[in-house]
Amino acid sequence: MREVLEPKEPFDAESPWTALKGVDAMRVLPYRGPLRGTITVPGSKSVSNRALILAAMAEGETELTGLLRSDDIFWCGWSLTQLGADVAFDGTKARVVGIGRKRPATARLHVGSAGTVARFLPPFLLAGEEGRFEVTASAQMSKRPVGPLFDALKSGGGAIEFSGEANCYPAVFHGGSFSGGEITMSGNVSSQFISGMLLGAAQSEKGLKLNVTGGIVQSDYVRITLDTMAHFGVEVAFDEAMTRFEVAPQTYRGKDLVVEADASTATYFSALAVATGGDITLSNIGEHTRQPDYAFHAILELMGAEVTRGETSTRIRMSGPIRGGFEMDMRPLSDASLTLAAMAPFADAPITITNVAHIRHHESDRISAMCQSLPKLGIEVEERTDGMVIHPGTPRFASLDTFEDHRMAMALSVIGVAGEGVELKDPGCVSKTCPTFFDELGKLGIGVEENV
């Protein structure tokens, strides 16, 4: 059945798909004994938003299956309908009739707290037909600068106006102003800026020759972008070091796609297997994924886990002590940094997380947030500019802030399950990437209690 997208104002991060509305706190109870079970992990947020946007910007029709059903996806889908795309959701499926380069004369869009949508839509708005497009974001997203992307777009002729602070949302984009050409930008702040430029380049007048300096943070996500573009019929020439990309003007073509599971979300369930000495199978993600956070399973092996990687599934088994005493550069899979931090108290020696200074600028300052939370649980932690050192200990029960950050909420849940439980304030923040997270814990037999 086709679902009508009807958000109610005032717009912020929450959407009609937000889970746990009216729930002030969630208590996650400790689990005594090894966790065993099979989990079907929700769809990848990264792939879902890329696929939705490209299907909408394509000529023709696309059916997407396995989509993540979360706040970020809702705002992406709703914004695309405001541009004239026909996006019909039915659960985790969507049928999309694209608009190509066509644009309405005016449109008002809202991206919520979706970083991917906030970085991927502007190039399409500027490169398509003429029009005036006002884009707002959640209070949280409006604090996150998007300067490197906006500066690059301006260098290619893009006309952008700001209603408040420069290089932040809200902003107005003038369609038909970005012509492309040769542009240089840094890749060491966010891979999403690079992905955004590449995605929209095919619809620009001149195409794009993009020179990237300083390396690319989490370059695997750019690979996912290139794969998704190729699926919809647009090819990109690039060197192996990913310092130069060339995108000629091309047309996206609608093509059906099955969205794979989210590797970042999967890390929490894999961590639960290890932290409880359990045996958990992820039924819908395997060794061939490009998502960088799947490499978290190699860290689990370093900690003593047995990981069996299949074509479409992954099994994590743990017996014996959890090994620590190592330093881990988490830059390539920085979204899993908090998951590793949540496991570290149960290890037999300290664990050091390094090279993730950039996660201070995500939904929360994630380094600071975790370093504030662990001491409340009785765990010693040393905060560093680019990471932290977590010492072994026995986590006690505590009531903790989630900092409106989905990854903090899910990581702290891991500590609660393997420790003495935890109460999480504002648990609905998990709706950004995994609205069913607490339901999935319940399916494994973990006690969860709502406080309204």
Helix proportion range: 25-40%
The total of helices stands at 12
Radius of gyration: 21 Å
CATH topology of the largest domain, by name, is UDP-n-acetylglucosamine1-carboxyvinyl-transferase, Chain
In angstroms, what separates the terminal alpha carbons? 31 Å
CATH class of the largest domain: Alpha Beta
Largest sheet: 4 strands, mixed
Unreliable runs: none
Keyphrases for this structure?
452 residues; alpha/beta; UDP-n-acetylglucosamine1-carboxyvinyl-transferase, Chain; four-stranded mixed β-sheet; 12 helices; globular
Question: How would you explain this protein's 3D organization?
Answer:
- By secondary structure, this protein is α/β, with parallel strands linked by helices.
- It folds into two domains: 25-42 and 261-451, UDP-n-acetylglucosamine1-carboxyvinyl-transferase, Chain (Alpha-beta prism), CATH 3.65.10; 45-258, Alpha-beta prism (UDP-n-acetylglucosamine1-carboxyvinyl-transferase, Chain).
- It has helices at residues 45-56, 71-82, 115-127, 147-155, 191-201, 219-231, 263-275, 296-302, 337-343, 366-376, 406-418, 437-443, and strands at 25-28, 36-39, 61-65, 86-90, 93-97, 106-110, 131-136, 159-162, 171-175, 181-186, 208-213, 237-238, 244-247, 257-258, 279-282, 306-309, 314-317, 326-329, 351-354, 381-384, 387-390, 399-401, 422-425, 448-451.
- The strands form six sheets. Strands 22-23-1-24 form a four-stranded mixed beta sheet, covered by helices on one side.
- Helix 5 links the parallel strand 10 (181-186) and strand 11.
- Helix 1 runs parallel beside helix 3 (115-127), helix 4 (147-155) packs parallel to helix 5 and helix 9 (337-343) runs parallel beside helix 11.
- 54% of the residues are buried.
